[in-house]
Design goal:
- The protein has helices spanning 19-30, 47-64, 78-97, 114-126, 243-248, 261-266, 276-291, 294-314, 341-353, 378-391; strands at residues 8-9, 70-75, 105-111, 132-139, 167-171, 173-174, 179-180, 196-199, 216-220, 231-236, 321-322, 333-337, 356-357, 368-371.
- With 392 residues, the protein is α/β, with parallel strands linked by helices.
- The protein has 2 domains: 4-18 and 294-391, Aspartate Aminotransferase, domain 1, CATH 3.90.1150; 48-289, Type I PLP-dependent aspartate aminotransferase-like (Major domain) (Aspartate Aminotransferase, domain 2), CATH 3.40.640.10.
- The strands form 4 sheets. A 7-stranded mixed β-sheet has the order 2-10-9-8-5-3-4, sandwiched between helices.
- Helix 2 (47-64) packs across helix 7 and helix 8 (294-314) packs parallel to helix 10 (378-391).
- It is globular and about 65 Å long.
- The protein starts with 7 loop residues before the first strand and ends with a helix.
- The mean pLDDT is 97.
- Bound molecules: pyridoxal-5'-phosphate (PLP).
- Pyridoxal-5'-phosphate is lined by residues 13, 78-80, 115, 171, 175, 199, 201-202, 220.
Length: 392
């Protein structure tokens, strides 16, 4: 039976977390802070848990440089939950700001991979039968060589924003396809005063993001920021609105209470029982990142780990074939193929023998995917790199 130290887990999410974080988490689950009770066994309204959640939010704000204009919400529902809550809440805010407008409201989606594509699909579904329509301002597949792959992000002057969108949505890192915006979203391309929404589920805390440029930034915690169960949502405060009042103006969907950003903000993310253990683990993860140089340090590590791996791929005389063009390659999810299924199997077997696990690509894309999240150390990445050199 392998030991934790014998294995490097390259899973795409949920994914590996620092062992020291998990050891503390395990201890806290049994006996938090000498209470004789675990952190998930006490009231979420107790002073002990309040302290946990306040410190978690405060450390997250520090790590993300969250300005005073924005609020942090600890929610549930994962990344996919946020596909819906973003639409519902931002449409309500839009309606209150544009009550008289008879013009059709549009939501612009920048589709660069499977997740933004899913998000656009959910927006279409939620707005069926309303005055709202979804404009896919970019479908990156149309800019790929085979016309069907997510393999690059074309420059913003080739996108087609609508005239006055209620928001523009993008996914900063596409986990399945291994596509990431180069450094950041091209903010200068946006129509003036546009609400920008970012899904950062799979590259959160791996590089700086300018929160002030966004209406909403959100991510499921289970990759760089903790375990599944917690969704971190940063919302600009003017978007925390009375969604019932907005609904009464007509033309937009009603917002379930549990999806309502203002309700969560007004109740300091304790409107109902929050995912207490997941919050605790995220708090420990944030503390760990802060104690090890913060986002700047993890950003440098991510650059080093991924560029070394891409170098091996690019210098393999075609054995390893990258799926994504260099300027849009993800630092978190390195996606590539081998010449045939047989060689791919041999590669995975070889890796497995060395304890290098979970390298199989997503079923929709195939090939190999090595996820290099914050929990993967540079030594861990080096093990894979050495294996790939010797396999070649
Ligand atoms: C970029 C991105 N967005 C959204 C999701 C969906 O997240 P969840 O499974 O937490 O709903 C994922 C999941 O891996 C993801 O990688």
């Amino acid at each position: 039976m392998p030991n934790r130290n014998d294995v490097v887990n390259f899973a795409a999410g949920p994914s590996t977390l620092p062992t020291v974080v998990l050891e503390k988490a395990a201890q806290g689950l049994l006996n938090y802070n000498g209470l004789g009770m675990g952190v998930a066994e006490i009231s979420h309204r107790s002073k002990e848990f309040k302290a946990v959640s306040e410190k978690t939010v405060s450390d997250f704000k520090t790590l993300m440089d969250v300005p005073d204009t924005h609020e942090v919400l600890l929610m549930q529902g994962g990344g996919m939950g946020a596909f819906s809550t973003v639409v519902l809440n931002l449409l309500a805010a839009w309606k209150l700001q544009n009550p008289e407008s008879n013009a059709k409201t549009t939501l612009d989606y920048i589709v660069t991979g499977s997740w933004s594509n899913k998000a656009a699909g959910e927006a279409k579904r939620l707005t069926q039968g309303t005055d709202v329509s979804v404009n896919v301002a970019l479908d990156a597949r149309n800019h790929s060589q085979d016309g069907k792959s997510f393999s690059n992000i074309p420059p913003a002057n080739e996108w087609k924003y609508s005239e006055n969108p209620a928001f523009v949505y993008y996914c900063d890192n596409e986990t399945v396809n291994g596509v990431e915006f180069d450094k950041s979203f091209p903010y200068d391309s946006l129509p003036p005063n546009t609400n920008l929404v970012a899904d950062v589920s799979s590259n959160i805390l791996s590089r700086k993001i300018d929160v002030s440029k966004h209406a909403v930034v959100y991510g499921g915690a289970q990759k760089n920021a903790g375990i599944a169960g917690l969704t971190l949502v940063i919302v600009r405060k003017d978007l925390l609105v009375d969604t019932d009042a907005a609904f009464n103006l007509g033309g937009i969907p009603q917002v379930p209470h549990l999806c309502d950003y203002k309700r969560h903000a007004d109740n300091e993310s304790m409107y109902n029982t929050p995912p207490m253990f997941a919050i605790y683990v995220s708090g420990l993860t944030f503390e760990h990142i802060l104690n090890h140089g913060g986002v700047d340090e993890y950003s440098k590590r991510s650059d080093r780990k991924s560029s070394k791996l891409y170098q091996v791929i690019d210098n393999s005389n075609g054995l390893y074939k990258p799926k994504v063009s260099p300027e849009s390659r993800s630092r978190m999810n390195v996606v590539f193929t081998l010449p045939d299924e047989e060689t791919e199997k041999r590669y995975l077997n070889e890796a497995d023998k060395l304890g290098l696990k979970n390298l199989k690509g997503h079923r929709s894309v195939g090939g190999i995917r090595a996820s290099l999240y914050n929990g993967i150390t540079e030594e861990d990445a080096d093990k894979l790199i050495e294996m790939m050199k010797s396999f070649k």
